[in-house]
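task queued by scheduler; priority normal; single chain, no ligands, no partner chains; default sampling; output format set to structure tokens
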Amino acid sequence: MSKHAVSLSRNFLVSLVAVLLGNGIYFLIMPHLPPAAQHRSYRLFPDLGLLIDFWICLVIYGVIGFLIRPAARNSRTEQRR
């Protein structure tokens, strides 16, 4: 498998995990949020709930990326030696 394919599949897996965890966390805390921050599927335009859900997913993506990248940098540095 080429480096590009490995990188693409790693990015996909990180994104998938971030979205699944983020949505799970949001739907667990949604009943405890104020009504304005809860997602309403019958609205035409995005509501505050979708923005909160997106933010949670984005934070999880950043945390996973932060935890994975230092290991990837160290392995690349060791390969150059």
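post-processing summary
- Helices lie at 3-29, 48-80.
- The first helix runs from residue 3 to 29.
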